[in-house]
Structures are given as C-alpha cells and as structure tokens.
Amino acid sequence: MTQPKYLTPDGYEAVATYIGQAADRGPDHRLDESLLLKQPVHGPITHVELAMIDERPQVAVSIHGRNLRYFDPLDFCAVTLATAFGMGLSCNDTGKGWTYPRCRVAEPKSRAIHLLRILTDAQPWEVAKQHPAEGPRPDYHHLSRRGLSKQSVREAAWKLGKPSRVPRLGRKDFYDAVEWYWQRNHLKAGIPVSLPEHLSLIRTALEFGDQFGSREAASY
Per its UniProt entry, which superkingdom is the organism in (predicted)? Predict the structure, then answer.
C-alpha cells in the first residue's frame, strides 16, 4: 500500500477530538489515546503505536522507518497535525550516536527546526536539553516533557568549556511553517479545517504540554 502524503480527514478529526477531550477534561485526566491510532500513517510518520512508560501513556512513532520515538500524547498531536499537510520530519544524526527529530521546512528554504526546541519553547540563546534520568546518558528515543528542559547557551558553553553556535529557530518559526504548508496543501489534502482552527489545535496541544510537562520536569 502506498504511504499517503497527507493525514486523512478521519485521522485529522480523531486527533482534533483528542485535543478537545484535553480541553474539556484537562490533560491530567485519562483521555482516549486509541483515537490517535485512527489512520495515523502519512508523510514521514510510518508507524504509530501506544505504550505505557512509568505508568504514563506514550505514543511511539517511527519516522521514515527509524527506531521508535516516544512522545507525550498531546505532543504527538502537535507533531502529526504539523505534518498533516506535507511538512517534512526526519531524524538528524548528531555524529555522536544520537539522532533527534527535526522538522524539514521547504520555506524559508532548507530550514531545519529541531523538535526539542519546539517542545521546550526554547528561545534564541537557549538550548533544549534532555535529563539523564537513568545513568549519565539520557535515552534519545524518549522525548516526554518530563525529561526535557532548556538552559542558556552561555551556561551550556561554559559547562563544556567551549563556545557554541547560537540556536535561534523555535516555535514561532514552526508556526510560520505550519501556516505555509496549510496554505500550500490544504485543498489537496481535503481536510476541512480553517487556518485559524488548525493553528489553534497545534498551539493548544503544545501549551498543555508546557503546563503539565514542565510541572513534572521541575522535579528533576
């Protein structure tokens, strides 16, 4: 079967329903994660399954057939809605054996927005980091908010004893890319959602993660 380029209308509606449940009940209540398995495969997302890690629901995602990456469900919602209209997503090899997902953006040309920066809402002069929850090295496959934080690039450079490039791209650039892909492809995808509604769903999903994921991360 050919991999669909865009998320199906039914798949989009299921994700939107899940975000609506979070808005109605609060994301700290148990929601119906089975909704996220309704026709989720499209574009760069080649496999999706549900998992429980530390008694918390997670969504396990294969990007272009790579090993599974684990997301909090609402962060998965934001990612899959962002790629629904054709935005690229790939795993970037750091050269140190770690590979992290990044959004590949066609406009502006050749931009790559790292997903950790989007999830942590890292600003210019901030770097997104993983917590080493077990041992000296975190598992880069696990991208739950409880294991993420951000710090100033100067602080990170001082700890390494060397200068660092200034990371700049983040959520604003991500939202700009979401808008560009909606404008370019929403008619082709056949998903009946307006641009304001589309952006609002993605923002809602990420902002719930800010509220509830950061609360857990603060305990590290």
Answer: Bacteria
Distance of CA 54 to the CA centre of its chain: 20
State the Cα–Cα distance between residues 32 and 72, nearest whole angstrom: 13
* Residue that the structure tokens 């995808």 belong to: 189
Give the span between the Cα atoms of 69 and 71, in whole angstroms: 7
**How many Å separate Cα 82 from the centre of its chain?**
9
Ordered DSSP codes for 124-152: TTEEEEE--SSSSS--TTB--GGGEEEEE
pLDDT digits (tens, 9 = 90+) for 124-167: 888 888 876 544 557 888 999 988 888 887 655 545 555 556 67
Tens digit of each residue's pLDDT (9 = 90 or more) over 62-116: 999 999 999 999 999 999 999 999 999 999 876 666 788 999 888 766 688 999 9
User: Which neighbouring-strand residues pair with 111?
Assistant: 105
CB 91 within 8 A of CB 82: no
What SS3 class is residue 66? coil
112: enclosing H helix or E strand: strand 111-114
